Amino acid sequence: MTPDQFKARLDYLHVSQSGFAKLVYVHRNTVSKWATGQAKIPGPVIAYLDLADGVMALTKQVSVGG
């Protein structure tokens, strides 16, 4: 995942870098480093974002369908 893809995922999920840091229990500077490419985004963080995307998509489907 590139830093731009990471930032796009955060935007899609409507979560700030600071808010995401709280969700995954890291310092906000760590998230900033992921977003700027200064540090590699760990696999578990990518998996967390994939899961969050799936939940968001299901929520939207239920909202539209229900």
TrEMBL record:
Source organism superkingdom: Bacteria
InterPro entries, sorted: Lambda_DNA-bd_dom_sf
Protein name: Nuclease
Species of provenance: Aquamicrobium zhengzhouense
Lineage: Bacteria, Pseudomonadati, Pseudomonadota, Alphaproteobacteria, Hyphomicrobiales
